[in-house]
Design a protein that fits this description.
Layout (H helix, E strand, L loop, with lengths): L20 E3 L6 E8 L2 E6 L10
Length: 55
């Protein structure tokens, strides 16, 4: 897979599961595994959820 931000190669572990987060080694962008069918993997940008500190 290539990063949609900087086009660097992202290695997806064979045992990665849908919902896991992976990071680009070059730019640090986070992606969530949206679909996985054998070696076909679809990534989507990870949602950044900020701390609400009980608010």
């Amino acid at each position: 897979m290539n990063c949609s931000e900087c086009d660097a190669k992202i290695n997806i572990p064979d045992d990665a599961a849908v919902g896991e987060l992976v990071s680009c080694p070059e730019c640090g962008a986070d992606f969530e595994i949206a679909k996985k069918d054998g070696s076909n993997v679809e990534l989507k940008p990870a949602e950044s959820v900020g701390e609400d500190w009980g608010e």
